[in-house]
Amino acid sequence: MTPFRQIGHATFAVFRETGRFANFTARAAAACFAPPIYMSQIWRQCLQIGYFSLPVVGLTAVFIGAALALNIYVGGSRFNAESFVPNIVVLGITRELGPVLAGLMLAGRVSAGIAAEIGTMRVTEQIDAMTTLSTDPFRFLIAPRITAATLTLPLLVIVADIIGVMGGYLVATRSLDFNGATYLRNTVDFLEAADVNLGLIKAAVFGFIISVMGAFQGYHSRGGALGVGRATTNAVVGAAVLILAANYLITAVYVD
Fold it and tell me: How many CA atoms lie less than 13 Å away from 39 in the CB half-sphere?
């Protein structure tokens, strides 16, 4: 019966962790709207999460846009459809690659940072001291990070969309002999507001996921430095998996 017992323990552990994460998410979301709201902490986190992530997101977007244009051109040339390069590039970046890749990059940078910071405060008993002093750690530590990530990631995705499209434009005009004015006109004529809105909705959801996962793993970390390292790893992996799952669900709902 040992294999069945192990399967049962694993199953109950999954349900227990899922319930704990759902309870933490609900409490953290409620803390974002409950006074007091620490605007200075929100502004600080906006700078940390949004502004300092611009170089990473920008470099990722320009290379993805360039690579996407090259691959679409190669595939389209097999069917004499090279003229569709600008249309597919702008659609792929605004609807999928822009928000997903920005989310994954921030999962590695922001979610890990939140988990490490809050985890260190947990193992050094700073969170316990904060509770003793009648300061709610959810409102002071977690809510500002969730608010900042949810607000700033859509802005980062807008920047990523612009840079990614320009990366495809540079490759198309410099390497693939496209006319620059025609490329831009096809891009603008094909792009719809619904495509951009879908990407921004995804970005807001991804920002929420990234911050909640990092805060959850950090808040429940135990065991000193080893526990903080484990929480950081779990935060990155969990955020990446949830981002990909949420991306599919949002796309499926939006298309239907």
Answer: 0
Q: What is the pTM of this model?
A: 0.90
**Cβ-proximal residues to 192 (8 Å cutoff; 6+ apart), any chain:** none
| CA atoms of 117 and 124, how far apart (whole Å) | 11
In one-letter notation, the amino acid at residue 213 is: M
Count of domains forming the chain: 1
pLDDT at 108 over 90: no
Which pLDDT tens digit goes with each residue over 32-55? 998 888 899 999 999 989 888 899
Apex CA 200: angle with CA 112 and CA 114, to 5°? 15
For residue 87, what is the enclosing H or E element?
helix 85-92
The boundaries of the domain holding residue 128 are 2-255
- Could you tell me if 155 and 99 are in contact, meaning their C-beta atoms sit under 8 angstroms apart? no
